[in-house]
Amino acid sequence: MALALLRRRPSDIPLARDPSGRFLVWITALMVYLAGLALAGALTVSDMARRWDSGLAGGLTVQIAPLPTSASATPMVPPPVAPLPVAPLDERVEAALTILRSAPGVKSARALTSADTARLLEPWLGPEAADPLLPMPRLIDVVTDGPVDVAGLVDRLKSAAPGATLDDHAVWLADLRSFTGAVHLAALALVALIGGAGVMSVVFSVRAGLAIHRHVVELLHLMGATDRYIARQFERHVVGLSLRGGLVGLGLAVATLVGVRHAAHGLRASLLPDLTLAVWQWAALGLVPLAAALLALLTARWTVLRTLEAMP
Amino acid sequence: MIRFEHVGLRYGVESEVLRDISFTLTPGSFHFMTGASGAGKSSLLKLMYLAHRPSRGIITLFGRDMSRVTRAELPELRRQIGVVFQDFALLDHLSALDNVALPLRMAGATDTDTVEHCTEILRWVGLGHHLHAKPSTLSGGQQQRVAIARSVINRPRLLLADEPTGNVDDGIGMRLLYLFEELHKLGTTVVIATHNETLIRRFNHPRLHLDGGRLQVVPAAAARGG
């Protein structure tokens, strides 16, 4: 009998009957849903940025543009001043490779094939990127293992391989890092806003509960209840509601992420980042309802104690 | 135990409902509190169970000057006072057992001990078959017995009762008074506000008689005579 009584021990304050309880469940569900999506977005962007960063840092890219040569292009009307003869593209690539491989700080230099280039351009141009009639530049992937004199290298490349340009990715990396920082800040601001709204909801709900059950609270005080004892009644109630709402919100967020990932898989030549989350990232998402419940607990405690302080 | 010195109480800007109240209750004493309706019995009890602070005067309770007691110290003092409220003040959503258990839970008793003690005292007041009944399903007399069981469950040093026999027949009323007598013999200080002259005559104790907000202490022998 005693065990049955222990299991069914009710709260001293009849908070379960309050209409604000239902409201708090759905508010929490919505907030956890939005916070979950914001977190997943931030994690995805972080992953994407890390992949790009590790791919771009410690490397250079040399691009050699296809220029008209004396063999490939004969103008109908000869120009007044004859241009300097330009070597074929493959010869210029070989010349650039020779210069790059002898440059201090360069570990390796590898020319991408036309097929490689076409594959890189496929997301923008589609399968037509592999058309041999399309004038495609040749790319050289350079891996560095020390400081490189970029300006000197550019001069030597331009003289040995006309049409060559060198990209040290500095601008890309700076933009990427700035973009990632902005996304993180936006996610943080969103989570802070959601948290703020959550805190306000709990404050409202707890204050309403205190007002509705003021006579019970006064009675408990007269019987010797401490403010902390009364606060615990509210904490238990609010944490229960928040966990229930949080699990609903988490379920909806997971369903949304799975749905978006499924839809992204259907896109041909997708430009979207990979939306797959690692196990630890799913675990981080699973912590969102717990964080919401903890925030609700602390808010309820603070609100009750502050309000009761004003009572006689 | 309890000393009131020139205590006055007023609500807001109204005139005083209690005027210049002075008396001392020694530990383990038993007093009836009498007086017509509106004489100030409930107000005096509220001062004694620390629901209000006096407008003037000094109240000393358990050796503590109440004007110097902080808000944080009040719960500890209140847990030493058992109160039977005139309207019972039971919590409708809780069973009889959970209502009685409240003071023990506030004092930090374990659930097992709480259930055991509450079951025992509810059986003693004749409600052994109503442990899980909600107050709304109990009669007025049964509710009153739950309220009394709650007030004495943690063996208070001071027991205050506002018309505790008002809703029960004479037999049960007598039985409840014997319960209070038992607690009194165990050292509890008891003050019972009542209009029931039969009980006052049957149990020979001094009276705190209120008339128009003023208090007169009537000794036991005089109470028997009067």
Largest sheet descriptor of chain A:
4 strands, antiparallel
- Based on CA atoms alone, the radius of gyration of chain B comes out at 17 Å
What structural class is derived from the secondary structure elements of chain A? alpha+beta
User: In the CATH hierarchy, what is the superfamily of the largest domain in chain B?
Assistant: P-loop containing nucleotide triphosphate hydrolases
The protein's oligomeric status is heterodimer
Helix content of chain A: 55-70%
| Strand percentage of chain A | 5-15%
SS-based structural class of chain B? alpha/beta
Quote the average pLDDT of chain B. Answer: 89
Mean pLDDT over the residues of chain A: 84
Question: What is the terminal-to-terminal distance of chain A?
Answer: 39 Å
Features of the shown structure:
heterodimer; A: 312 residues; alpha+beta; Alpha-Beta Plaits; 9 helices; 4 strands; disordered N terminus; B: 226 residues; alpha/beta; Rossmann fold; six-stranded mixed sheet; four-stranded antiparallel sheet; 35% helix; transmembrane transporter activity (chain B); P-loop_NTPase (chain B); cell cycle (chain B); Cell_div_FtsE (chain B); cell division (chain B)
